[in-house]
Design brief:
Elements lengths: L5 E6 L4 H11 L6 E7 L5 H8 L4 E3 L8 H15 L3 E4 L8 H4 L6 E5 L11 H8 L3 E8 L9 E8 L6 H24 L3 E4 L2 E4 L16
Parallel strand pairs: 1-2, 1-4, 2-3, 4-5
Antiparallel strand pairs: 5-6, 6-7, 8-9
The protein binds 5-O-phosphono-beta-D-ribofuranosylamine (GRF).
The site of 5-O-phosphono-beta-D-ribofuranosylamine has 14 residues, from helix 1, strand 5 and helix 6.
């Protein structure tokens, strides 16, 4: 059997999306394995999750570098060293510069806890609640040089209830994140994501967003 391609996962916190990716990999649902987990925060629980799976980890502290570009160059070097074919940002709380984005063209995915282009930035669930939308959700997209602005791969919608708090909404969204991130990674490695300008066509599954309405209460 040929070696599976490797992905690099970047985390800053809990790493529950990393866990979903690790679990999907173990179950054989995605045709790749996590080869390295990198964090800018040594205390990130995501690093612990990686260690439990015997996956190499690396801490690259942004505070150790004089500029965002210098930090990004170190990240690029570390990822290149791992041989990763895809970079997955999974709760990585740093804005990356063109130095990083251009190093891996169309090979960086990010997950965001809102239905982009609504509520980009760091407080997706809070902003959705404050705005009063009836649906929010999550988005997996390719990284471009803007903030949460790259071509969208998959989205899942969840309802917003009157008695929701930021925490309850974020938790409902997170369940869907754990479903769609492995799905996007699978489609990437199956070579089925065709970027056409802003749009990403999914070969063989043109109606994929409908999947997520099957499980609205999860
Ligand atoms: C997720 O909501 C993700 O969308 C956002 O940060 C959170 C990370 O959660 N970018 P986790 O670290 O994967 O648990």
């Amino acid at each position: 059997m040929s070696e599976q391609p490797v992905i690099a996962v970047l985390v800053s916190g809990s790493g529950s999306n990393l866990q979903a990716i690790l679990d999907a990999s173990l179950r054989g649902e995605i045709p790749c394995r996590v080869g390295i987990v990198i964090s800018n925060k040594p205390e990130a629980y995501g690093l612990e999750r990686a260690r439990k799976h015997g996956i190499p980890t690396e801490v690259v502290r942004h505070t150790d570098f004089p500029s965002r570009e210098a930090f990004d160059r170190k990240l690029v070097e570390t990822i290149r060293g791992s041989g990763a074919a895809l970079v997955c940002l999974a709760g990585f709380m740093r804005v990356l510069t063109p130095v990083f984005v251009r190093a891996f063209p169309n090979r960086i995915l990010n997950i965001h806890p809102a239905l982009l282009p609504s509520f980009p930035g760091t407080h997706g669930p809070k902003q959705a609640l404050e705005y009063g939308v009836r649906f929010s959700g999550c988005t997996v997209h390719f990284l471009d040089e803007g903030v949460d602005s790259g071509p969208i791969v998959v989205q899942a919608a969840v309802p917003v209830y009157d008695d929701d708090t930021e925490e309850s909404l974020a938790a409902r969204i997170l369940v869907q994140e754990h479903r769609i991130y492995p799905m996007a990674i699978r489609l990437f490695f199956q070579g089925r994501l065709k970027i056409e300008g802003r749009r990403v066509r999914i070969e063989g599954e043109p109606r994929i967003p409908e999947f997520f309405h099957r499980n609205p209460d999860a």
